[in-house]
């Protein structure tokens, strides 16, 4: 079974631009979550999608948005990029609705200049 | 306000000895706890978990202990191996909208010296 795939792996943007990151979950997994990892801050939860619906949302500004498609693939978008948005963005998928085990992708490393 | 705290940013251990990674939490609603391991340039991978109805869970060299009254859990690695060198994240979760959303700590970087 293929793992969680995230694209692109690395990208550089400038302040004010927007970015879209993509995530393909493990086949059969219907839940997709997004996390932001910055140095010293651990993994901070952005949002979770299940069956194309955002089920949970973390404490991030509205510039951060996401969506999930009928095939469970997910995208997240960050608009009006700020320097502080530079981070590793991790996508994770899981099978059901109650299990706590997440399967993570390798992440998309975003650098904002 | 950090709900999951890993107060030691780093830990250095000799190969063959025990590694003990600690984690504290503040939210009494948490009822499921997990440890993830992360190597550089890779995503975190699940290591071991424990439900709040238990106080110990063991998987090979890895054992997680949960002390609910102290809101504390720890991960023991015995014996430690150089390949265990990684960042370890503690996570805690509760049922929210029918789905467990883990809250992660900031991680502890474990270095195991040969």
Give keywords:
heterodimer; A: 113 residues; seven-stranded mixed beta sheet; four-stranded antiparallel beta sheet; 53% strand; B: 114 residues; five-stranded antiparallel beta sheet; 56% strand
Descriptive notes:
The complex is a heterodimer of chains A (113) and B (114). By secondary structure, chain A is mainly beta. Chain A is 0% helix and 53% strand. In chain A, β9 and β10 (103-104) form a beta hairpin. The relative contact order of chain A is 0.33. The model of chain A has no long low-confidence stretch (mean pLDDT 92). By secondary structure, chain B is mainly β. Chain B is built from no helices and 13 strands. In chain B, a hairpin with a 6-residue loop joins β4 and β5. The radius of gyration of chain B is 14 Å and the shape is globular.
Helix content of chain A: under 10%
| Poorly predicted tracts of residues of chain A | none
Number of extended strands of chain B: 13
Per DSSP, what share of the residues of chain A sits in E-state strands of 2 or more residues?
A: over 45%
Structural class of chain B: mainly beta
Q: Major beta sheet of chain A, specifics?
A: 7 strands, mixed
Number of helices of chain A: 0
How would the global form of chain A be characterised? globular
Q: What level of helicity do the residues of chain B show?
A: under 10%
Please state the average pLDDT score of chain B. 92
Most extensive interface between two protein chains, with residue counts: A-B, 27 and 29 residues
Overall pLDDT of chain A, averaged? 92
Q: Order of SSEs of chain A, N→C?
A: EEEEEEEEEEE
Overall geometric form of chain B: globular
Taking the alpha carbons of the first and last residues of chain A, their distance comes to 37 Å
Strand content of chain B: over 45%
